[in-house]
Structure to design on (409 residues):
């Protein structure tokens, strides 16, 4: 009887050891995969979601329309883009009074862009595309209820309220009472912040900060950045399920939530301080019975090119024109090489393209000790981060080699 008990204990011990060994091996595999995917929180979230080192290569840049609404009124309209491969993000606000009619001398309240969402999200999307010249296909509408729940779920958001805010509107059940200064905002106060425009005594944001809608839009963009930075902190990673549940209940979109989730591991690693922000250029006018915002078409085209199409500013183009690049490619990479050549020349770089017989590895060779920032710009264009220093050949600043392993185009 004693031998049987000992035998059972040995078997139980072996099973326990096997389980522990399996857990150790599993943890090792997960850690290895996480390191390959960037390590840290990003790596572990990516692994948990089933990503591998090739996943990011197939996740495209996303450009969409972000709409914040309350009681079916659009308080926030933002064109946003995010590129997980370059970690670049942009937000451009569109004033809710933007004129969308044909003849501004006959402008009415029904010609304002914020009215269109009530008709259909597609009409709002079309108007934004007409104004910007972009071809945005996706929209994400977030109810202010979602904002309140999200902010409360992450324990509040620390934010520097720019001015004292004091406004009451019983028709909207909107009561705003905030003091100026850095403070922790709960969901209710966060909603007050992003919906504020003017005080009861008609005072508001200063001209230096951005008066009226410009001040409001600036506050909205800066709050989004602050909320993003605080949402992706380690303490909130375990709340991802709750955050996604809030999104499912309060977000309207023509995108698949599953596709949006693919961007999550990479957004975690994004430096929110590097998000570029802007507002649609133009002026407010009262050509008829109401005030409307008339966008400046020329300035809008220039801004859209720089922010969303990757076009350089005049200063950047002039600086890039001093840089000579040698582009080497294999015969079967010619089509890709032609596209990269065009992309580089659009940025102002001078490119000399040549075919080579052998190139096993894609790389960027820095031949003249160019700065890290300048090298990163080149790397972002070809979406490859393998950089090495090379000999100065007195002709080129960089040599780019498109090897047989090159797949991004």
């Amino acid at each position: 009887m004693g031998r049987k008990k000992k035998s059972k204990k040995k078997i139980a011990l072996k099973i326990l050891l096997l389980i522990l060994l399996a857990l150790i091996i599993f943890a090792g595999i997960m850690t290895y995969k996480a390191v390959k995917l960037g390590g840290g929180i990003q790596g572990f979230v990516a692994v948990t979601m089933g990503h591998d080192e090739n996943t990011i290569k197939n996740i495209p840049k996303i450009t969409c329309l972000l709409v914040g609404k309350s009681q079916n009124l659009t308080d926030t309209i933002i064109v946003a883009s995010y590129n997980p491969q370059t970690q670049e993000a942009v937000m451009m606000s569109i004033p809710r009074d933007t004129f969308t009619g044909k003849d501004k001398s006959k402008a009415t309240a029904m010609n304002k862009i914020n009215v269109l969402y009530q008709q259909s999200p597609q009409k709002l999307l079309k108007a934004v595309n007409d104004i910007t010249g972009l071809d945005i296909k996706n929209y994400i509408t977030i109810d202010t209820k979602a904002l309140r729940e999200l902010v409360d779920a992450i324990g509040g958001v620390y934010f520097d309220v720019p001015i004292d805010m004091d406004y009451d509107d019983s028709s909207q059940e909107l009561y705003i009472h905030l003091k100026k200064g850095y403070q922790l905002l709960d969901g209710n106060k966060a909603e007050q912040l992003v919906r504020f425009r003017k005080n009861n005594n008609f005072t508001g944001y200063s001209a230096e900060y951005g008066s009226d809608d410009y001040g409001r839009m600036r506050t909205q963009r800066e709050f989004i950045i602050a909320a993003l930075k605080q949402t992706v902190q380690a303490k909130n990673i375990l709340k991802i399920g709750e955050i996604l549940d809030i999104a499912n209940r309060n977000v309207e979109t023509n995108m698949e939530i599953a596709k949006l989730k693919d961007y999550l591991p990479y957004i975690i690693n994004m430096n929110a301080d590097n998000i570029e922000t802007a507002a649609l250029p133009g002026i407010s006018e009262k050509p008829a019975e109401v005030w409307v915002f008339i966008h400046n078409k020329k300035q809008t085209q220039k801004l859209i090119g720089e922010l969303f199409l990757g076009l350089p500013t005049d200063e950047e183009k002039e600086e890039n024109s001093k840089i000579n690049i040698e582009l080497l490619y294999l015969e079967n990479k010619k089509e890709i090489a032609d596209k990269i050549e065009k992309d580089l020349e659009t940025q102002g770089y001078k490119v000399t393209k040549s075919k080579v017989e052998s190139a096993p590895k894609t790389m960027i060779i820095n031949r003249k000790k160019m700065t890290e920032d300048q090298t990163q710009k080149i790397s972002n264009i070809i979406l490859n981060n393998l950089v090495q220093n090379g000999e100065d050949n007195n002709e080129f600043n960089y040599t780019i080699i498109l090897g047989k392993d090159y797949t991004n185009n």
Notes: The longest strand covers residues 73-83. The first helix runs from residue 2 to 36. DSSP finds 14 helices and 17 strands in the chain. Residues 158 and 201 are 27 Å apart (CA to CA).
